[in-house]
Amino acid sequence: MRLAYSLLREIQLKNYVPEAIDYGLKEVEFEQFIKLMENKRYLERVLRVGDQYWYSIKNARLTRSGLALLEEYKHYEEEYPERDQLKDWVKLDRYQERSHD
Fold it and tell me: Least C-beta-crowded within 10 Å: which of 22, 56, 90, 99?
């Protein structure tokens, strides 16, 4: 859930436009995550161009559901890292999922 929180937070605050590299993801993985966020109706106004999806989230915005998700996970704000440390912070979710299995 950290990845979703971070993506929505940065889009909402407009500190910078999040990129795949910020999270240690491949571009295709990041694009799939953006699509998932749209399909779950957390995000809207993602610009897509052409058959081989070129996309931009520069002008994307959160829906009511996206704002609700930010509110639900606002406790992450206490530990939210700088941009250069997001990759490790997001990995904590994967580590915690494995340790609960």
Answer: 99
Among 59, 62, 75, residue whose Cα is nearest residue 9: 62
Q: Where are the alpha helices (DSSP H) in the chain?
A: 2-13, 27-39, 64-72, 86-100
Task: State pLDDT tens for residues 68-97.
Answer: 999 999 999 999 999 999 999 999 876 555
Check: CB of residue 29 under 8 Å from CB of residue 20.
yes
Task: Return d(Cα 97, Cα 32) in angstroms, integer.
Answer: 21
61: number of Cβ within 10 Å: 15
pLDDT tens figures, 17-76:
999 999 999 999 999 999 999 999 999 999 988 766 688 999 999 999 999 999 999 999
Tally of residues, the chain: 101
- H helices of 14-85, in order, are 27-39, 64-72
